[in-house]
Amino acid sequence: MSKFNIKGIILTILGASCWGLSGSMGQYLFTVQKMDSRWLVPIRLGLAGIILLIYSSFKNKNEVLLPWKNKKSALIMLLYGLFGVSFCQFFYFLTIELSSAAVGTILQDLAPIFILIFSCILGKRFPKITEIGSIAMALFGVFLITTHGNFKAMSISSKALIAGIISGFCVAIYNILAPKLNHIPVLVIQGWSFLLGGITGVLIFRIWEFKYVPNFYGVIGIIFVVVVGNIMAFSLYISGVQIIGPNKAILYSFAEPITASIISTTVLGSVFSIYDALGFMMIFIMLWLITLDTEKLATDNK
User: Fold this and answer.
1) Which residues, other chains included, contact 69 with Cβ-Cβ below 8 Å and sequence gap of 6+?
2) Most CB contacts within 10 A, which of 52, 66, 89, 250?
3) What is the tens place of the pLDDT at every residue in 35-58?
4) Considering all CA atoms of the chain, what is the largest pairwise distance in Å, rounded to the nearest integer?
5) Contact between residue 254 and residue 109 where contact means Cβ atoms under 8 Å apart
């Protein structure tokens, strides 16, 4: 394995771990500080976007407007920034608000299923037996996490499940589109993505109508999710994706639910049962199988 690939793997793991930390902080803000995801996410995205674009205007001043230089880049930027990054953030934090950081992060890891479906459609082919098996394993993992083995009851709400699945779909969108923006500095891409999401969220959710005022610890939490969960996480992770590609990156992103689960269980007091552990394992095996299959396909096509 080349040093270049090792760098990509490390960046991806670090970025995913930052998401896990941010998700756990989000759980604290929702459960203890009583914040609303509709209020938090637009502020989080907007602040992160402003910070990154101001920084980029000094470091990459000739490239800040690069995403808008032509119609193709502008369209990809809009799709990546809004339907990928921003929608992912909202539905991810909504899932956490409705359940826990551990559940929110693991449901995001269903993204490879959507990437696989998209690849099959583009390749005009049916999924292979191993791919079908991987999907079945992932769905069984979700079943264990959401029902704890009880067909008659769900351990999380249906709203949390739907929001988590949508966040996974959005993850697939920005993983697929990220390599198409390789000609633009990562900080510029993320800055515009966050700003687009922040402005859209402010207008849709009309956050000025919320009467919530954070205390000192709430402000510290907001700063944490902005810096660690947005600026550091996305910048590190997308840098890794651009090096090793979306298929491999998805595998190493499993550092996110592991980090979130450890913190949620040990610090925030969330219950983590044997069914959750088995469900996590099923989804991780799915990620591993899909990654192996993708690498084999790439080798055969050389």
Assistant:
1) none
2) 89
3) 999 999 999 999 999 999 999 898
4) 59
5) yes
Q: What's the chain's length in residues?
A: 302
CA atoms within 13 A on the CB side of 300: 6
219: number of Cβ within 10 Å: 12
- Cβ-based neighbour number of residue 82 at 10 Å: 17
pLDDT in tens, 129-181: 877 777 787 778 777 777 776 666 666 788 988 999 999 899 888 888 888 88
**Alpha carbon distance 264, 44 (integer Å):** 21
**What is the number of H-type helices and E-type strands within the chain?**
14, 0
Judge contact between 22 and 225, C-beta under 8 A: yes
What is the chain's Cα-based Rg? Answer: 19
From first CA to last CA, the distance across the chain in angstroms is 17
Contacts of 154 (CB under 8 A, 6+ apart): 146, 147, 161
